[in-house]
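Why do we care about 3D structure at all? Because function follows from shape, and shape follows, mostly, from sequence. That is the central idea of this module. The next example makes it concrete: a single protein chain, its amino acid sequence, and then its structure expressed as tokens.
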Amino acid sequence: MEDFYFAYGYDPKQNTAHRLYRFINGNFERYDPIGGIWNPDPEQSRIFIGEDWDYEEITEEKVSSLQIIF
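And the structure:
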């Protein structure tokens, strides 16, 4: 499976999202905006089995400028 990034509550006009994830080297991770680090989140694999469709896939380049709001 190819690596990818995705966001929940993504607003391209405001360049914001509520949550940010990535699938890298077969592992899901969630971005911690306070710590500025990626934390493992294996439960996010539900997107692969169709239980969750409420996200937007985004590019790695977009991730660097995205603001995470709570």
